[in-house]
Amino acid sequence: MNKKNRTLQKPTKERIFDESLDLFSKKGYEAVSVREIAREVGIRESSIYNHYKNKEAILDAIIDYFKIELATSGTPQEDNEALIDQGPEVFFEVGAKTYIDRINTPKMEKIWRLVSIETYHNEKIKRFFKKELLEEPIRGWEEIFNLMIEKNLIKPVNPRTLAYEYFSFVIYLFFEYFILEYDEDFESFMDLALEKMTNHTEFLLQAIKV
Amino acid sequence: MNKKNRTLQKPTKERIFDESLDLFSKKGYEAVSVREIAREVGIRESSIYNHYKNKEAILDAIIDYFKIELATSGTPQEDNEALIDQGPEVFFEVGAKTYIDRINTPKMEKIWRLVSIETYHNEKIKRFFKKELLEEPIRGWEEIFNLMIEKNLIKPVNPRTLAYEYFSFVIYLFFEYFILEYDEDFESFMDLALEKMTNHTEFLLQAIKV
DNA sequence: GTCTATACTTCGATAGAC
DNA sequence: GTCTATCGAAGTATAGAC
Predict the structure, then answer these.
(1) Is A2 helix (H, G, I), strand (E, B) or coil?
(2) Number of independent structural domains in chain A
(3) Average per-residue pLDDT in chain B?
(4) Which of B131, B163, B168 has its CA nearest to residue B147?
(5) What's the predicted TM-score (pTM) here?
(6) Which residues of A touch B (CB under 8 A)?
(7) How much is the average pLDDT of B109-122?
(8) What is the residue range of B140's domain?
(9) Which of A64, A155, A199, B69 is deepest in the core (most CB within 10 A)?
(10) Is residue A90 part of a domain?
(11) Mean pLDDT for chain A?
(12) A173, burial (CB in 10 Å: exposed 0-12, middle 13-18, buried 19+)
């Protein structure tokens, strides 16, 4: 490849990252060989090791990227306080937007899929999922519902119960999409998922409104 | 091994089944080798092939066993009709009992775990999960809620929405247990899960009671 | 039905030339 | 930084003796 073409292309390390993510998210980490990654990138497998220590290091890089992207997305904690006074409707809307924003690029969508399918047997991913994608959001929503109750915006139901009521449905939708229907059409799934989520929040709202 | 000991022992085919299930549910299908199964059973790997055509045939046998066990458990359809008149409380109780019954033996618990972790990348298991463990129950619960509305036992909320409200939480609990917390203590998880499920059904009940 | 022996394949990873 | 060449380990599966 001449110099001109090379300057037009992404660096090899980034191409390894992208192709690995593509393959991992489609087939699972174990089912993808280093040879296969190399073939897709267009280099020999031994050249991979000039960029990453081993296969696992590629996975680690992907997870690190995911953590950083998640950390810089979503609503800042301080804004929550101001939003709460506007009532639960606004909050559910912002909440839904936050989750959608987090899968809004093809890259992030692939990593979500990868995290979903590898959680069960990669200890690092599992701990990350439990802590950052389950316990932390539940805790956050509990706090939000608690404040709403204090401000008399909703009925005084146990805020932890409400957090589970709201968030278990989100987890369910993620499960449905990334585990069971990932191959199918994204657009039509998303339409249906949004409709389900709307029904869910409307039901919840109806149940707790003062 | 002499004849007396052999008669006291399970047939080799059953021991292959049991050890395979044990290993698959702990480590995942791909991560278990035929050699490893053979070692646990106490025979050579080549002897496995006298009982099962190949590794995949063992998995198929496990899934078949699971299907049969599921089909013969649970509440018969006809009984539903009679139960509905007793109101939603009774139904939620029976529903919870049904799901618990289905993981009530160590063998069934292991298969649940196996199905949960292999769904993402075994096409047969995925189709089975989607159809029998998700769509069919949702459809069943929709029908139940629909009848309750007709009999004026609950508020006239969209029965499909109610089915999702109820059942997405069940899926969530299964996900939490089999994917995220399987290693941990079953008893203490079960206590917490039952408490969560009780909170959930109480909340739902409160929201839809006439 | 179990054994030994082995064929055959694929994997991750390294050494060293260029 | 990429290549050729190759290693050792591990995998599934089969043939044939007992």
Answers:
(1) coil
(2) 2
(3) 92
(4) B163
(5) 0.94
(6) 27-28, 30-31, 116-117, 119-121, 126, 129-130, 134, 157-158, 161-162, 164-165, 168-169, 171-173, 175-176, 179-181, 196, 199-200, 203, 206-207
(7) 94
(8) 73-208
(9) A199
(10) yes
(11) 92
(12) buried
